[in-house]
Please model this.
Amino acid sequence: MKSTIKTKTLVLAVIASLVTLTMTGSAANAIGTLKQDALTGTSATVDTAATDAAIRKLVNGRTIKLGFAPPILSEAYTIAQQGAWNQMKDYETRYGVKWVWTEEAPLNNAHSGVETTGFIQNYVAKKYDAVFVCSAAPAAVMQQLYKQGSAKGVEFYQFNSTEQLNQKSQATDATAGLSSVSNISYDNRWQSGALAAQYIAKELKGKGEIIMILGPAGSDWTKLREQGFRAVIKKFPGLKIVGAADGGYVRDKGLTAAADLLTKYPKINAIYGENEDMALGASAAIDAARLKHWDGKSGIITIGADGLVSGMDEIRKGNLTATVNVGYADMGRTMIRTMFAHKVLGMDVAKFIRVPTVIVDKSNVDIFQSQIKAELATKVKY
Model:
């Protein structure tokens, strides 16, 4: 009984010492200042020695096994994973926690989600502590797997997810009908699709013709980003979407789709690619058609979404006008912060956590590309 009281007292002391738990990252982290306190969100000038010592005592050299299940191996998920690894390294150094990290991603059709279900079952069978999942598998299937795994002690955290498509109200149910502990993402409608449309409307002063390069038909990401994009475009009578095609979320298909549409609509003013790879494919199609890229006054605007180093390189060159940086590095760090707060410190965490997103073009590419490069430059690996 005394041991139980002692443990509870220690946990309360740790929690009481925290100023705040920053679940969505911070402005400082967003511009590349990575020396910020990993847990509290306070600056490095705040003395956290007592808190660190208390948490280190609670951790007691514990090893935490984490599974990482992205929908595909890509630059975007490499950035998210590196952000997670960097946060893990922070906690290892400060609190003495040890980590086991296993990544499993589909090698075939990323948008079927079939392979991911097998990965989840494998993580549960091997008794992992927590699993981070981004999957295109049907939501009901995934939630059932999470429910079964949770009953066996495995925690699930969705990231870069589209749970808002089927989200129930939290008015009477705090879980919103979800078996995942938390869902760390951005709203694909209003933090991605809508932002791209707003940028186009601003640059074109509310007048012009647009073509869209969409993700696979039936994809939740496709539905949500298109919904947000169209909702904003409708507000501008002078803007018209004249054509759309499936670019499969990959560069070569994006190029083919854009090339076909440019043949039909050579006088368009903007191309919206639902992700960065398709937008870069569209950029190549503009070159192939010997059309002009946007220079701030004339040409074709090309905008995507992701926030990749490769995409920002093309922004610098003028081949990509802009992109929606959805904060993959911040997402990765937030995944670890959230899991640690809940799994180790016993804190209640938000069911839905939204990371900040931002339009990146030539005016601010230095800020956001340097932040991503700083994350990738650490060479930390698990």
Residues 2-186+328-356 form a domain with the Rossmann fold fold (CATH 3.40.50.2300).
